[in-house]
Design brief:
Residues 6-209 form the DSBA-like thioredoxin domain. The chain is α+β, with helices and mostly antiparallel strands. It has one domain (3-214): Glutaredoxin, CATH 3.40.30.10. It has helices at residues 16-33, 63-71, 73-89, 104-114, 118-133, 142-151, 156-164, 169-181, 204-214, and strands spanning 3-11, 41-49, 61-62, 99-100, 189-192, 196-199. The strands form 2 sheets. It has a 4-stranded mixed beta sheet. A two-stranded antiparallel ribbon has the order 3-4. The longest helix has 18 residues, at 16-33. It is globular, with a radius of gyration of 17 Å.
Length: 218
């Protein structure tokens, strides 16, 4: 009999450590399902939106200039150097160029995909990460979002119509507000089995230990 383990992933699509955390989570899932006694476990993923900077304009600004203003040039260069090293180990080629804009519409796309099928939502989030962090694309741009949606198997025309109007806008904003109100102050944040939390981009072993606890294996 198959056992299902629910995991809610709270993330911002412009958060680099969320991308790292997702990669490590995926490695943990693969490793965990290879362990004797856990081959039958199925993971059901859902996503909740978080915004690191909800005041960011939709038009966006130069990513490097924004981070240098926020952290200072020297500290930013140190942070980016470390992030790129971490990324290589996870199969991520972090690139710091491009624009950063408000992430709300990208979260709206993730929510839209979740209404279709779980695997579509997961595919969309992975493509958003890759587009923003590796391909220097502005994921606040509706045309970019339509292209990402199509690459994940969604109907581009329906996505374009959704983004052009207010569909799911209130629901997405409400979800952001609820996450912030719940006390989550940083991302990534993983809720496993509705009761166990993993905060940050932890190593796969940390995830696996929580998977066991959630399944009542210890």
């Amino acid at each position: 009999m198959t056992r299902q383990l629910t995991v809610t992933i709270i993330t911002d699509t412009v958060c680099p450590w969320c991308y790292v955390g997702k990669k490590r989570f995926e490695r943990a899932v693969t490793s965990f399902k290879l362990r004797p006694g856990f081959e039958d476990v199925e993971f059901k993923l859902t996503y909740q939106p978080f915004q690191l900077n909800p005041a960011q304009s939709k038009e966006g600004e130069d990513k490097i200039k924004m981070y240098e203003r926020k952290f200072g040039k020297t500290r930013y260069e140190q942070m980016m150097g470390h992030l790129k090293q971490v990324g290589v180990a996870e199969g991520i080629q972090f690139s710091s160029g491009g624009m950063i804009g408000n992430s709300l519409d990208s979260h709206r796309l993730v929510k839209f995909a979740g209404l279709l099928a779980d695997q579509k939502q997961d595919a969309v989030i992975n493509r958003l990460y890759r587009a923003y962090f590796e391909e220097e694309k502005n994921i606040a741009d509706s045309q970019v979002l339509v292209s990402i949606a199509e690459s994940a198997g969604l109907d581009g025309a329906k996505v374009r119509e959704m983004l052009a109007g207010d569909h799911l806008l209130k629901e997405t904003q409400d979800a952001v507000d609820q996450v912030h109100a719940s006390g989550v102050s940083g991302v990534p944040f993983f809720i496993v089995g509705d009761k166990f939390a993993v905060s940050g981009a932890q190593d796969p072993a940390a995830f696996e230990a929580v998977f066991e606890r959630a399944l009542g294996a210890v």
